[in-house]
Amino acid sequence: MIYPDYNGGSIVNLTSSILEAFDAQPLYPVLKEFKESKELRDSSNVILLVLDGIGYEYLKKNGHGSILNKYLIRKLTSTFPSTTASATTTLKTGVAPQQHGITGWFMFLKELGVVSAILPFRPRYGTLSFSHNGIRREDIFTEKRINEKIKAPSFIIYPDELVDGKVQKKSKNILAYKTLDGLFLEIKKAIKSTDKRKYIYAYWDKFDYLCHREGCSGQKTKEHFLELDLKISSFIKSLEGTNSTLIITADHGLIDTPKSKTILLQDHPELLETLTLPLCGEPRVVYCYVHPSKARQFEDYINKKLDYCCELHKSEDLIQKGLFGLYKPHKMLLERIGDYVLIMKENYIIRDQLLREKEKFSISNHGGMSKEEMFVPLIIKKIS
After folding, report:
1. Into how many domains does the chain fold?
2. What pLDDT score was predicted for residue 168?
3. Is the model's pLDDT at 212 over the cut of 80?
4. Close Cβ partners of 219 (under 8 Å, ≥ 6 residues apart)
5. Which neighbouring-strand residues pair with 280?
6. Using one digit for the tens of pLDDT, what is the confidence trace for 56-80?
7. 3-state secondary structure of 163
8. What's the N-to-C CA distance of the chain in angstroms?
9. Is 159 a member of any domain?
10. Could you tell me if 68 and 89 lie in one domain?
11. Are 310 and 187 within one domain?
12. Could you tell me which residues are beta bridge partners of residue 365?
């Protein structure tokens, strides 16, 4: 298993380097690549492009001759868990899940009394967003973004479907796009918006989407990677003369998880009856809320019936070991990771299904501690 290297080799340390370059005080150490260089400080534009799902192992296997591989500096570790909700929140805030408290796709929010799908910001069972009922994202996402921590013009660039139109109208620094070409146009628009030194965070999610639907080795996945690489090559050329540093990384990689390696909770009624809440977290790292009187039954069942496919940990132990990060934890961290954590072995996943919830199967998944999931690339291109 690959453990996060929060002391200098993780995506959180990359964000620390950005914070320091803009004279903000980071909580975590900076990357040595930037500690020994003034590259970021001397750049008029610092651009962080996050390519959701493009892991280091995928790039090394499939990226021969690519522009991404050409400017690849090293591998970094993702956060724990290695998943979009946790890792992109780290990339946006500059701290680990230990501080920002976003622990996976499905999160039990004690303050609302509900299991949520945290990024869509709604109850897991579906229906309207929490925002519809007057609950603000900043009530749950309490850590400030890097954009709010630095004293410089900054921009956040998202897919159009992820941007709340009302929020965008209120904030001139949130830009939206509908296509890959649109993404790069919005970045260039941000660069041209002012002569002042600025920070630009941009996010692309289609590669991750295709991996989930088609698999990491799927033909459409491969075709999209080639398209993405070609567009990035053209984009780099178009930035000549802007004195920019383009940093490209990912939130996580993925691993193929066939149906034959899927554990369905409804097939294990003795285990199901020990739980007080639905499974939370991710199919590769699961948070279990267990009735105190049935803790022994839960432990025995996992150790005797499911030890071939998962490791059992007490949640508090993983905090103590530093898997979620270093330093003082978020006040709700323990409530959001349950009583026990199941870390899946090999390419197993575990799932449950709520009443009337549609069955959904993803060919590839993430969140676990394999090298495919945990290692992401650090790609840097200085453009004079």
Report:
1. 2
2. 45
3. yes
4. none
5. 287
6. 999 999 999 999 999 999 999 999 9
7. coil
8. 40
9. yes
10. yes
11. no
12. 255
